[in-house]
Records
---
Amino acid sequence: MLEEEILDFSRRLECLPQFCVLTAPERDLLMQNSTKSLVDKGQILFQQGDFCSGLHILLSGQMKLAFASPQGQEKVLRIIRPGESFCAAMLFTKQPYAFFAQAVRNSLLLHLNKQSMHEIMASNPLFMQNIMQGMADDYQQLVIDFESVRLHSAAERIVRYLLREMEASHASSGVINLDIAKGLIASQLNLTQEHFSRILNELHRFGLIILDGRRIEIPKVDALQAYIPATA
Amino acid sequence: MLEEEILDFSRRLECLPQFCVLTAPERDLLMQNSTKSLVDKGQILFQQGDFCSGLHILLSGQMKLAFASPQGQEKVLRIIRPGESFCAAMLFTKQPYAFFAQAVRNSLLLHLNKQSMHEIMASNPLFMQNIMQGMADDYQQLVIDFESVRLHSAAERIVRYLLREMEASHASSGVINLDIAKGLIASQLNLTQEHFSRILNELHRFGLIILDGRRIEIPKVDALQAYIPATA
């Protein structure tokens, strides 16, 4: 990268919660060994079976992590939004990626070199802690998704998804604007798009949500929450 | 724990790959702040929703990590064998356990205090690296299990399980002795026990495995491997 770009990306890094504990020289060092990449919509960033060479951060656009079956069936594991890093766990294992990454929209990414990451983690315990916490949260989320796919009904999975989106967007007003294509959300919940749409329409008919294109209003959070059976 | 017990457990710790990089004083310090627990078959070690206070190591017996649905349905996430530690990720997240742990057999466990773990990780980078690698491998295994449940047929899941077990037990002879109850293996593969048994019997009839109670022989590994469709 050019000097100017390094400075620009170093500033962007400073704004991300996991990286704000880095000193300016640490950020610069990290950036000098990093690369940016522009990945067009539909383009693959890495394939299942590739080996990880560093941490990816999405600066703008949207990416999906997914599996493909030999029959060509695809299942979404996770959708990445700007500001999120992904595959931190891959910095610490010798195994290859078990999924692929593809751009859902034109995306700008930073690729932080694995060795520089390890060097800075070794000298900055707070940074190490942030990376580990991110990795632990990824693990926890995966456990919850796994549980959900195996135990919960389709409607319950959708209700849980809507409540989580509402919480993540701090939408106290109870309004969610879906920024992810419905097909991708459906796949993430292990549903077909038709099944997903049918249940959204049902929830709308029951008055539990108000559907308006990509805008979903939850008039009474309690009523929607009551749709989830109490845990044993 | 008594002085003698500390010495005994410290020696056991020394034999475990993740802990062999600790110095004797580090091991002793860790042990002084740790507790052992005897958990009878059927007893719960921790519940879904509990908060983690340290790392668990199974010294003898067998444990299961599982989810329960409000309807009382249970799904096994992982079976823990002696020498394995579990829930390393929980040392780094502020979230509660999303699953419970229950003894499948009478079990002896060590519980390594969270704060001591963090202190020793901070001063011993090799130990930190081992814990992180364990955590990353757990994450990777969970991704693979998740993929398997969503994409692979029941028969393919069973074949993959058998091949993995064969590899893990270094059984070049192609003989596996199932040390886990069939119902638990079935649940881990998201199958009913009946479905699991039916497919094992089918594989036996096709000559791909030779079933003999808890002993499974794989006469030709290639032939069994060919049962898995090639990846795209």
---
Amino acid sequence: MKARVFVSFKSTVLDPQGQTICSKLRDLGYPAIADVRQGKFFDIALADGVTPEKARQDIETIAHEVLANPVIEEYRVELID
Amino acid sequence: MKARVFVSFKSTVLDPQGQTICSKLRDLGYPAIADVRQGKFFDIALADGVTPEKARQDIETIAHEVLANPVIEEYRVELID
């Protein structure tokens, strides 16, 4: 089984990297680009035999405690297969 | 309209950050974690009036030329709405 964890800044948090990319893309000739926000994702492969419930429970805990900074970031967990 | 671009190392490329996270998670008591690979994504908002075809064409070019390093990274474009 695999899980994917998306981590990104909360919408209230400024994303200077995203803003820099946005202005660069407009300079490069893409005026239709209105906004860019950057995030990261983690593809986590789990050993065989883990139930989907146990997988989601563990990955949610891992996302909250290790992969994301709950003060400025939000996360979302997807179980892939 | 919004597009999301996923950028990650090619599967043949070593991901030391992912490996470090994987071993740390196992140390923290998650033995079922078999592998971790990290990537980044970009949420790109486009101005109104851009056709899906033009949006995909521009975002694919942007992904290839700006957001990803084609030598070691691969990318995938999703048009969200």
